[in-house]
């Protein structure tokens, strides 16, 4: 009988040992130019248009290339488009790079851009972004026009999200008789497991949730890129301390994100290259008005906002490694209304609950991911505890993101957590996805799990989309933030800071950016 | 009444009690165990807050170190965890959950084990062969592995939300079902030895039914090994629960057992907040050690062949 005890104790010890010394097996010095990296999670699909998420876009920047991309200073850098010009109010002409080939060997032409834009317009997640576009027109093999329905100020911003896909590769039917270009969220499609892009890396092997192996694409067009990484071994490590321990023990070369609790330690550690940056990803909670009658009452929503001590969350859970928020637009973005302040006030919250007739509170469910945002599960747990103080009893569930997003898409809980980084680096993008009235046709409100609907907000956002006068547009977008603030449309928590760490000699400082899409193709390892 | 007094006198004058009083290890272990059980029973009165009630938790109190270190606060003698829970209260309530799961899981094991062991041993033949091969198969796989598979499947099937409500019941059942062979085999061995004895023949001759013979005549004579395994099995069940919770398959973070407390503090151990993991671990180790020492002592006492003199 005692041997049982020993066995289990050994098991527990072993678990500790694995966590502490994950790298013991990998202590051998890294082979030249192999990057072993660990993020908190791996992309859920190889289809760059299946899910609009950070994980997908990180993958897209490795396997595909956008037409243009943002530099670290948020300027446009030509990628597959060599140059571009405004032809008229509605048309932007892109001159495509010649001599570019896809991983499959097919040449890259204007046809692929048209195919990609059409597919984007049919993707449930991306279509709202590309809603303003009429379509793409081929001028010749290497010239293409992007035409918008109305004058649109963000064409180039969106060109950073246009990752041309290999038309010939994705045309036809797969072994199951399904079209190869089908997009099925959380489904198993040809595109979710096969990829042919023009990007610097080719997927060599992939086991979802366990390991992805990339190798450098031999015929990569960008021969001027300083990048010298020939192979990437990408292992998702969900547990924060394990990820940090792997870096420290030499098991991996590059990790993201760095948990706030370990920032100080990594910063002081010899041989570690820590890079941090203020971010624009807002973390919010959405209150589902379709599921909970009480959430239809703005006073109840305000009470919830007043009850949540987001400053406390930033100070204690995030260790100051985030900026407390009262709105969606981060400081510096056009829609940021500087007069909106965080509103934690427990007495006010209780008074509002009493006023709305919910003094005795009610019970709700809440769901949050546990490996998507920095400390997401702990934030959710703290928020649930805060709501208990205004007698709202929260039944909290935290699950890994691979299971969370399907739940989110069916709006499985009364309060759901979502973080958003504006894909266009523009304020309107937050509202378009998170708070506009959900509309499957246009894709607006695709991530509005609160089912919040305010016709005035919808109108202002649509109006802002065709405003070319930046000053007037900023006023409109700030007006939107004020409306949402008054209405307590969502619970703003904070903008999460960004962090990366590598061993010395891996020059991540040159390739990371505020979008949090590391350009690994350009990474230099000494 | 006289019957009871007679039994009590017999117990007080018994060899077991005499040797218990003379054995400092057993005395200490017993005292510790009683202290832990009392602490668990009286948790609501001993703790300064109810760690399962989120309304009493304040994030601003998070990660306060123990009172004797700099930055400690008297209100939180062992410090607080990352959500601002008083660690001492959390340990007391966690102890409750751990002990409840341990005791009930052992009751499930015992019920299953006794029934199967008695039936196999007494009836023999095909029934015996079937149950014992089943036990062999199950013993070939580790308890934890079985429990992890069962819990993971259950969690995926019913969804995480429902799972958290049912966590205690599921842990009791899973740990209970995973370890019945320990009991069944011990009981069967005793039954095989006992059923050849004359008193069983006598019972059979006067026409008692098989179930009555098993329950009223054989079972009481197998109780001493049962007592010994039970102590060890309680310790095992508590450890299994802690391990499962540590792996995220046990008690939810909002209702932490000792295992989930250790698990939630684990990621802070490098970052300075060592107390979140350390104190629940000490509590767990002490509890298990006390139970195991008592079990060992009981085995020595009840087994005359191991008599140490």
UniProtKB/TrEMBL annotation, chain A:
SUPFAM superfamilies: Periplasmic binding protein-like II (SSF53850). It holds the Pfam family SBP_bac_5. Keywords: Signal, Transport. One of its GO terms (biological process) is peptide transport. It is found in: Periplasm. GO terms for cellular component: ATP-binding cassette (ABC) transporter complex; outer membrane-bounded periplasmic space. Residues 75-435 form the Solute-binding protein family domain. It comes from the Bacteria. InterPro entries: Peptide/Ni-bd (IPR030678), SBP_5 (IPR039424), SBP_5_dom (IPR000914). GO terms for molecular function: peptide transmembrane transporter activity. CDD domains: PBP2_NikA_DppA_OppA_like_2. The keyword Transport applies. Residues 1-32 form the signal peptide. Its main location: periplasm. The keyword Signal applies. Belongs to the bacterial solute-binding protein 5 family. This is Peptide/nickel transport system substrate-binding protein.
From TrEMBL, chain B:
Keywords: Cell membrane, Membrane, Transmembrane, Transmembrane helix, Transport. It is found in: Cell membrane. InterPro entries: BP-dependent_transpt_permease (IPR050366), MetI-like (IPR000515), MetI-like_sf (IPR035906), OppC_N (IPR025966). Its main location: membrane. It is a multi-pass membrane protein. The chain crosses the membrane at residues 25-46, 97-125, 137-156, 162-180, 226-253, 273-295. This is Peptide/nickel transport system permease protein. The lineage of its organism: Bacteria, Pseudomonadati, Pseudomonadota, Alphaproteobacteria, Rhodospirillales.
